Amino acid sequence: MTDKEYKVKQYLERARELQRAIETYEEALQVERAKVPRSSSIIKFSKVKGGRNNSSEDRLYKYLERAEKIEKKITALENEKQKIADTIEMVEDIKLKMVLIRRYILCDTWEDVATHLNYDRRWVTELHLRAIKELVKLKITHP
What we know:
The protein is an all-alpha fold.
């Protein structure tokens, strides 16, 4: 594999890393949601206590702030992953494109790629190399 091919492969690998990060942030968001007090208890407590200075309501606002930050991170990661998907779409040969999509966008193992596309694993890795070379020909110059 040439240096240019290796750089393209590393760029595509970034999509797998991004997917793992997205899943981690989504899990963190679920954990935050589990910490939120029920809205009915906030309303009842607010009516009794009056005003906005109760701990349940404060926890809700803090949750909302944390959740918003996490959601922004997820969106940024998804946008970056979409750029990689757009790069893959530049490959014209559908077989090559499907190998790249299954491997980098859907995060399949090589065995899963082969199974889903009904190819031998060796053939899948050959198609993968061809796809990488195709992207190099298209002068993909991503970091």
